[in-house]
Amino acid sequence: MQLLEERILRDGKVRAGGILKVDGFLNHQMDVGLFAELAKAWHAAFRDDDVNKILTIEASGIGLACIAAQEFGCPVLFAKKTKTKNIDGSVYTTRVMSYTHGNVYDVIVAKEYLRPTDRVLLIDDFLANGAALEGLCDLVRQAGATLVGAGIAVEKAFQPGGARLRAQGLRIESLARIAAMSEDSLTFVR
Amino acid sequence: MQLLEERILRDGKVRAGGILKVDGFLNHQMDVGLFAELAKAWHAAFRDDDVNKILTIEASGIGLACIAAQEFGCPVLFAKKTKTKNIDGSVYTTRVMSYTHGNVYDVIVAKEYLRPTDRVLLIDDFLANGAALEGLCDLVRQAGATLVGAGIAVEKAFQPGGARLRAQGLRIESLARIAAMSEDSLTFVR
After folding, report:
1. How many CB pairs under 8 A join A and B?
2. pLDDT mean over B16-40
3. What is the ipTM of this complex?
4. How does A12-37 read in b/e, with b if 16+ C-beta sit within 10 Å?
5. What confidence score (pLDDT) does residue B74 get?
6. Residues of B whose CB is below 8 A from A32
7. Which chain A residues contact residue B69 at CB under 8 A?
């Protein structure tokens, strides 16, 4: 998507260690006008899939998910990161490895809000190693809901998450796919 | 606001320990159609205040803040909870006591996104003891920005946060103000 690619080139900064800093418009300060355009692109891709729920993960997916949900006319559910063991059986739980922070955390959703009748679109800001997205897929599977696909803002296509999840059959619509990046240059997949 | 009060009465549940569970529409599953109505109400209240930035705190404020930002035509900035000491001076930091979780955490915003020229509206889902909102006020103060006020979805008016912050001069527009609640009944401030 040209608009997002241009914005990344203009305002993104590549930091040491393969970090793409886009916190001026995507995941700290958030440009909701841009988000509305991303939402339209995801809606164009999934408009015929009867999406009735958007699932994301806290915190930086929530804004994108809410604006996207307006396009689809459905609610958002966000998976919560937790260190609390929930023993009452009211939640689905999955474990996610964070490569960025070098730790493992549990994410949960309340069972009552993810049902077998749901047709779920996943939304997140980044796809790199795919751990968070894989965790969301697992929650949908546990619920017996239908996984329609995933809408991603920025995919680091040089990292393995996208290829692995597509090989598993997940439909992924990434609006900017980075082929390679360094502190001097950044190129997109064409 | 009648729409929100009715929704709380219909779908909210009061739990032991003064917990109001509204996670079916406000802070786990999120009804973005309802959010749009809340956003209109906040915009009606603050439309003449030249708001050019909305500040919230992760995670459950983000969805409300993004939908509200569409009304105001401005970006959102969300304060991040962190355990990492940031020593490079690029962030404003404040300390927040969580009464819900019984701990203290630091919240940060990048200095580059909160400027003295900003006119900031705070948005959050809940106001009870006021610790989170007070932390956001402190961040605005550190930045030398103008604090326009706060838009809150649900205020527990029987807890001290709202009264204390109003006494300090903060303009707070809470769309549902709970006067008292128990597992059997819930009443709003009239």
Report:
1. 94
2. 95
3. 0.96
4. bebeeeeebebbbbbbbbbbbebbee
5. 98
6. 66, 69-70, 75-76
7. 30, 32
